[in-house]
Amino acid sequence: MQELHDAPLAPLTTFRLGGPADRLLTATTDAEVVAAVREADESGTPLLVIGGGSNLVIGDKGFDGTALRIATRGFALSGTALELAAGEVWSDAVARTVEAGLAGIECLAGIPGSAGATPIQNVGAYGQEVSSVITEVVAYDRSTRETVTLPNSACAFSYRHSRFKAEPDRFVVLRVRFGLEEAGGMSAPLRYPETARAMGVRQGDRVPLSAARETVLRLRAGKGMVLDPEDHDTWSAGSFFTNPVLDTAQYAAFLARAKDRLGQDTEPPAYPAGDGLVKTSAAWLIDKAGYTKGYGTGPARISTKHTLALTNRGDATTEDLLALAREVVAGVHGAFGVTLVNEPVTVGVSL
User: Fold this and answer.
1) Could you confirm whether 23 is annotated as catalytic?
2) Which of 160, 175, 177, 220 is catalytic?
């Protein structure tokens, strides 16, 4: 297991931000992961687990403790059952399932990060979420000091949330198992209107798997959501804020404010979210509050391609990024009475 001291963490994140860790370990096997976690727990050392670094905002002072980078590898396919090691590159794994003719995660193409992070956030995009295909998650339980296998029903999945996110200091994901679909080389039914429109089909239709993946990659690239070292619009964590989920009273108050601000014919995006809840669009809120594409004059700005992405233009600090995020949160709340919640995990800082 590789060990470094006073190790820079910024290169391990897609934001390219953050100070160093006292100590950085890189684990390439599950046994090394477990050993590193146990050592930190037994010594009382703060522990930061890093996968692909695509969902991390690390403070400029860095991390006073041990950072553990999970670099395990493993892609095992048996029929429609897929097992991924936590360190597998997610976008590469999606490509391999498409090549194998299996449906279920093709619309999650191009999402940066590692496989082990997907159940934590319940990663989703373009009408698909990993919770619909995850069968089991193998994790090290820091409270019982043993490796456990959690079925889907024990993961408490919800919109961009899970048991793993709710108990961040308890579980370290080691492996993720999926149940995919053999559909004769066709995709799962397309649930997202933008994807269907881009492909000239109706919602609910199936399309060739490779065509679905390529369309999603094209859509994501157009929004700066596919990593490109030369494109500062991709020096981000993708969507910085989750789409707000409002109850009936909250949505009615929001709608009234939107109409007062933008006109009585205004109809904000609204999607049923179950149990009387309505999900609206964070990107719409940000844009209509006046924070348009490219907003900002400093080294941290809103992406020129998508209002939901906050970006490092090359020489930003984490404080630059947080100042922009706080400005957007305050502006949206002032305009619409809705409080945006950050999607990335913050380390040593907060909004």
Assistant:
1) no
2) 160
Half-sphere exposure of 93 (CA within 13 A, CB side): 29
- 332 falls in which pLDDT band (50, 70, 90)? very high
Work out whether the CA dihedral 118, 122, 127, 128 comes out positive or negative. Answer: positive
Catalytic: 350?
no
Is the distance from CB of 257 to CB of 222 less than 8 angstroms? no
Q: How far apart, in whole angstroms, are the C-alpha atoms of residue 36 and residue 185?
A: 41
Distance CA(88)–CA(342), nearest Å, equals: 25
* Nearest-10 Cα torsion for 74, 77, 78, 83: 50
* Both structure tokens of 350: 């907060």
| C-alpha–C-alpha distance, residues 171 and 150, integer Å | 11
> CB–CB of 199/93 below 8 Å?
no
Question: Is residue 274's pLDDT more than 90?
Answer: no
d(CA 84, CA 141): 19
In the block, tokens 């794994």 appear at 93
Active site residue 160: yes
- Asked if 71 contacts 87 with a C-beta cutoff of 8 angstroms, the reply is yes
For residue 331, which of 300, 280, 279, 295 has the smallest C-alpha distance?
295
Q: Tell me the C-alpha distance between 223 and 235, whole Å.
A: 12
Q: Please list the residues that pair with 177 across neighbouring strands.
A: 83, 136
pLDDT at residue 43 greater than cutoff 90: yes
Tell me which of 91, 162, 239, 303 is the catalytic residue: 239
Q: Write the pLDDT tens digit of every residue in 199-237.
A: 999 999 999 999 999 999 999 999 998 889 999 999 999
**Residues whose CB falls within 8 Å of the CB of residue 110, separated by 6 or more in sequence, listed in order:** 91, 94, 216, 217, 220, 221, 225, 226
pTM above 0.85, yes or no: yes
Alpha-carbon distance 170 to 227, whole Å?
A: 30
Which of 88, 106, 136, 343 is the catalytic position? 343
